[in-house]
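Shapes recur. One chain:

:::
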Amino acid sequence: MQIEKFSADTRGFANHGWLQANYSFSFANFYNPERVHFGALRVLNDDLIAPSMGFSTHPHQNMEIITIPLSGVLKHKDNTSNEWLYVNPNEVQVMSAGRGIYHSEMNGTADTYLSLFQIWIIPNEEGVKPRYNQKTFQPEDRKNKLQVLVSSIDDDNFDGLKVHQKAQLSRIDLDEGETFTYELKSEESGVYLMNISGEVIVNDQLISDRDALGITKTSSFQLNANTTSELLFIEVPMII
């Protein structure tokens, strides 16, 4: 097993007033040649957006974009429907940009900050028809067990959100003292493990709030929760 730790305080940071953004990988004005991507995972931004503010209409192409609101309400509109849609905590949004899509993302409230993860995954197929979907995931369904949020569009055994890549995104909420073993779908994949909150140990590596681990060259790994913890697993092919 190979593990690389990415401490929260080593991420890129930008403060635009209305937007405070932490970048796990090179993005916008943050560039680190050693952190351009993790396999097919290209972007993991940890954004805090002020009330009623957000990103005006802008384009994307040939990227799988997943948004996970952690608190607050996301308001989304794109040119596949041209209607405002609301994405709440415990919902996940997937947008396949494909051959080209325009969208807007706003804080959907006038009095509460919006905290979210935005994740970009490099697709294994370009030029596809743009598509959008969102789904609710109940917190009790990830209590001390894995809750799969997103899988490959070729995964016929999964009826949830899908992307054009052999990827899997999942969450778990562990109680203090709990142990969990994550089984990779493929040994050719790696897992970018983001600790949303809490404190866990993986193979003698301790990670706290917003720390991450890049885990490769293994078929499984074990987590031990020192405290109540919330975790996000992003499993992606390491060869793209």
User: Anything to note?
Assistant: The chain has a mean pLDDT of 96. The CA atoms of residues 78 and 103 lie 4 Å apart. DSSP finds no helices and 22 strands in the chain. The radius of gyration is 17 Å.
